[in-house]
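Cross-posted from the bioinformatics board.
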Amino acid sequence: MSAKKVRGFFASAGLAIHLTATVVAGATRPDASPKAPPTWSSRHALTLPKNRVDWATTTASHWGITNRTELSLHPVLVFFSPRAELKVNWWRERGTKGGANERHGWALSSLFSLAYPTRFLSVVSHSGSLALLPANTHVPPALEWGTGVVLSRYLGPVVTSLRADLAFAPHTESDVPLLDFPFLYQRFATFYAPLVPRLGAYLSAEFNRTWGLDVESVFSYLPIDPNFGVRRAYAVESALNVRATFLMRHRIAAGVRVSTAQYPVGVRTHYLPTLDYHFLMF
Amino acid sequence: MQFVQQQRVSSPFRAARSGHRGAPPRSAPNYVRGVRALGVALCVLSGWSCDPFGVRFSDVQSAEYYQSTTVRTVAVPDRLRVMTYNIKFGGGRIDFFFDCHGDEVLMSKDQVIKHLTGLSEVIVDYDPHLLFLQEVDTNSKRSAFVNQVQWLLDHTELNYAYYASQWRADFVPSDGIGAVDSGNAILSKFPLDHGQRWALPLRSDVGGLTRYFYLRRNILTADVDVGFPLRVVATHAEAYGQDGTKRSHIDLFKEQLDAAPGKVIGGADLNTLPPGSNKVSDFDDSVCTDEDFEADDYSAEQTWLRDLYDDYAADVTLAEYQAQQSKYFSHTTDQAGFWNRKLDYLFTNLEVVEGSGLTHQDQAHGGIDTMPLSDHAPVSMEVRLP
């Protein structure tokens, strides 16, 4: 079976699983009290309740394994860019145990992520349109390990967080050209740098039961090998998302991502409009 | 907390206003207003994003100015040596994918410097006062981000330059090309001024996405200070397409020569053959099969340069060329073959020194074997200054 057919099979299978799960979820979801809005996944320290799943379409989906452990991955894109992240909540003040939007206090969680960048780098190495790397690129196996902490302050409908991460992806010597495509550049920098530290700030606000806002800004230091033509590279990626929640368990988020980064060609800023649909199961 | 406070204040205000009117509020529901606001925001964002990879240029804009790190003062001579050279972005004879001879896309810095060193030896050997360059990279991934205009200024006797990009993108998402900035340049021993980039028409026979990332060809003009106003004009005309774009590029190049206020010299890769060429199609080195990118058949173009030859002196007269064509061939994509067509030209309304026109093909013609350095050979001539 050709690589193209295998990719097509996994894409179809992933989509089928995604759709099936969505339908099952719709049939089995528990009644939600209109007085207590359910907890959604977030960039902040607290995790989803046990067994709850926050399905997303363009971003990663989240699953509450226990009340303090949350796993996130994208059910379809995982076949093209395998990546999973585990969030474990270690500490939370008593005031953070209330319902969503009623929490007050501090919480601290750790993060551990595992990714396989080789897969995506190989997928985008071909000839013709949408080839981000040359067809004659040979990508060695590499596992990306990431670890970090997130400290959050809950102030009722407003939450702020600081997050610090370190990521590295050891692999054998390679001549893979630098993937300097905007937004992917900072995400795959671990393949070209010994260690990538990141520092992020996040803010979420609920205006009412329908409308909310998420703002984030992440600074990444990218100590990429100077042989790629860039020294002391960095990236600052910020996002602004307005979200609307309807029927308690459906959510649409729209916004923009802005990335300013030091590339080999110089500092460039790029914009990316974003749109996502979430559905909350259980 | 600011959001919450505003909410608490505004809601009673709305209620009071409704009560005063004695009717429920008629304004659109929250979600409708929110969707409208999102729509406006997306429109603004799409406006920002209409050129997300920074590929576009103005119709007319200033060219980029360069200067050698060591400027050497040169007296204006009686005769000016002029050269035009398509240097293939310092790619030498690597078999790139677009030539259909191989699959290479990117070079290492060592490879680029090696090729530039070879090119600079040819330039230093002829020692031109004016040099027209085509396909010179200033900030491209394929040439390891070496600024070739600056490098050549620093490794030849040339002092000043203007550069006009004809292909610029933060990222070309095709074949792994990535970031690119490549174009035309005019290098000079004498001070240059008023460098201008004039946009040429785009190909109309390719799809929208291809067109967005496609080459934006241009004419580069500047004035050289040689004791009187001397205009210099450079271009690299369209190579592919049957939509008339190449013809319009050649005509606009001539219009720029005609528009010069006094004396003028033009140097160009016009991607077409001189009138009276014996072979006009089915070249042995053309192996590409994609008809959108074939440059193999010039049979419909045999008169396109007639007006240029009629109105201007050239590096070689038509009579000389037609008598001994192979001596003036300046291009082949096959490094194992030999130059098989003339695409590179110099035109002027100054007096060309008789017999000075030279296509630097090999040791017998120019003193250096230029075949390993580019898919074009440099063309030179001497002109008499008044």
